[in-house]
Amino acid sequence: MSRFLVSGVAGFIGSSIARALVARGELVRGIDNFSTGKRENLVGLEAVDFLEADLNDEGVAARACADVDYIFHEAAIPSVPRSVKNPIESNHANVTATLALLVAARDAGVKRIVYAGSSSAYGSNPSLPKREDMLPEPISPYAVSKLAGEYYMQSFTKVYGLETVTIRYFNVFGPHQDPTSQYSGVMAKFTRMMLEGERPTINGDGEQSRDFTYIDNVVHANLLATSAPAGKVSGCVFNVATGSRITVNQVYKELQKLTGFTLEAAHGPDQPGDVKHSLADITAARESLGYEPLVSFEDGLRKTVDWYKKSLRVGTR
Fold first, then answer.
1. Is 264 a member of any domain?
2. For 33-48, what is each residue's pLDDT tens digit?
3. Model pTM?
4. Residue 130 domain flag
5. Which of 70, 115, 122, 142 is catalytic?
6. Domain range for residue 149?
7. What torsion do the CA atoms of 91, 111, 240, 221 make, to the nearest 10 degrees?
């Protein structure tokens, strides 16, 4: 039986991948230093062999990779605003730790690493939809750090023969996403505020658009990436999203309907390092991974709001 390592296992996406693996009966090891992950995300994951440690420690990285076949590398500080405020911290968590994990994986004979890339790599490139063959134009330190991780993945494939697959996420949302941090994603933050009667603030005019992607779609793509033929995927980058976009203003109106919140949004200044529009071309993922979105934006939004209603009511956030 294969053994899987999930880095950042206490995070939103990492814990979601771990749940799917446990549900399949897989052997799972997880690692997290709780810099952004939440202990409550590990509830129900008692079967996971958990390490509370930092991947920047080379000895820790080696221990995490021992006897592992496949790695989902989700550990990161996933925030544009936080990277603008503290770029050194972002680089340390997103680049240095990634390199330490790659070295440990190479030395341990890991079969494949699936890396959590980011659509922020496309940056200021105005062309839509975003295709993997476009020249990256990252704006924020976060985007630069995630792109550096992609390049390290590709380098280890070319130089050492380590199979790597990069999945560029597009604005992932869903249950277990932290709604309380000032750096929270717009879906989690707005949902929490509306349910608690607080008035959210939209950065800029709200006409910025995103390819919002429900978490189940991302988990599905990650699992596909471990079993796809190496000749079709190793060393490659794939967009994972829905191939459709919606503005933040439209999201706000949909959330109003689902939460019963009646106040209009406040508006603040544009967010430094942010991009105006994002939309994925998912052709490559469809052809090489066999990926198709499992859950539409509308269904995902309903599932998300329903989960937060239950979560906030019982005080589990």
1. no
2. 999 999 999 999 999 9
3. 0.93
4. yes
5. 142
6. 3-175+212-244+279-294
7. -130
